[in-house]
Amino acid sequence: MKSQTSLSDDLRADAARNRARVLEVARERLAAGDAELPMNTIARDAGVGVGTVYRHFPSREALLESLAMGGFERLVVEARKAADDDNPGAGLERLLRYGVRSQIEDVGLAAVLRSSGSARAETSRLRGDLLEAVGRLLERAREAGAIRPGIGADDIRRLSCGIVYAVRVGDGDLDEIERYADVLVDGIRPRS
Amino acid sequence: MKSQTSLSDDLRADAARNRARVLEVARERLAAGDAELPMNTIARDAGVGVGTVYRHFPSREALLESLAMGGFERLVVEARKAADDDNPGAGLERLLRYGVRSQIEDVGLAAVLRSSGSARAETSRLRGDLLEAVGRLLERAREAGAIRPGIGADDIRRLSCGIVYAVRVGDGDLDEIERYADVLVDGIRPRS
DNA sequence: TGCCATACGGATACGTCATCCGTTTGCGAT
DNA sequence: ATCGCAAACGGATGACGTATCCGTATGGCA
């Protein structure tokens, strides 16, 4: 079974090599905290021309999406697990914590989750899958009285992004994420 | 009593006029939804040279701060009122709702609140005032059992920014703000 | 081995930020 | 009134990033 995300099929050998190099460099730079990620410097560091970068990734958005695919797929898996959990309330809490933590660790994933559009078809599909699973989860959680009414799957997405944002708006103490996730988790419970 | 923010004292007549024009144009553009706010187009629309814009406002940050001063001062007033409220829990909730609503209505204020640094001394002072008042409010709210322990004034600032962000991450339904504010308000209550 | 579709690379056009400096102008002094 | 100069002006300019375009190079199949 081939990876769903490789896309290196049908590519000429040099093309596949360059694509991989660009992705690798971008991943390093992102991990090193360079949120700007200028395309021309990526090209330089990868030892290719700018044109080559743009051919593989028509925009920075597309590049970030490609970097985030793995994390996005894992998130969808988690969402489905949560949706099938015997205890939907617990599943939702677990998913929320997993989601915000992933976004803190992976800036690219955070960028993809917060944008409603997408440069790659694959991303749209995953977004749909995610919202579907979360929707199912929410429905069960509502029935179980674990969550207040009026909160939809997209609210969960947006609020998660907001919490991640709140963590980043600060002097970089990314450990706050658990505390802030607490606030979100408790905030969506039914009002007492 | 002179306005604290005019700053047009000591300015030559033409300088004061240009400064006002720039501010006016920037405010219009911001209200019209242009979040980019390119300095050179502001200069063009205000009928001045770019240099003039930069002399008055060394960076876009500084310009946004100047625009936000009024809203920021009103926010501090609200915070102090809340800190003196007989019911600190109610005061906190009122302040939170006021704060997020203000940020939704005023992009400049949101920008200033989310940044920890500041281009103008006035802004630093206001930020200090705000955090002081919120700190006082939180202390009283904690004593009254209206808020969980471990949440500080800066957490409130960051979480508010996060909620505002969550509202903006979407297709522009800014009305969501009340629903999302509910989540924040309930999320910082003591755990039951 | 030769062909050519595919991919490469970097020159190029464009837009924005921010600065610098020669020119203009407001305004207090005379 | 007018003079002189500090203050302010304006826009040319350089640095930087995005995105495109096209002549050149090359991988891989016949």
TrEMBL record, chains A, B:
Highest taxon, organism lineage: Bacteria
Transmembrane segments: none
InterPro entries in alphabetical order: Homeodomain-like_sf (IPR009057), HTH-type_TetR-like_transc_reg (IPR050109), HTH_TetR (IPR001647), Tet_transcr_reg_TetR-rel_C_sf (IPR036271), TetR_SbtR-like_C (IPR049445)
Residue ranges of DNA binding: 38-57
Alphabetic keyword roster: DNA-binding, Transcription, Transcription regulation
Domain HTH tetR-type: 16-75
The keyword DNA-binding belongs to this UniProt entry's keyword annotation: yes
GO molecular function (one): DNA-binding transcription factor activity
One protein family per Pfam: TetR_C_43
Name of the protein in its database record: Transcriptional regulator, AcrR family
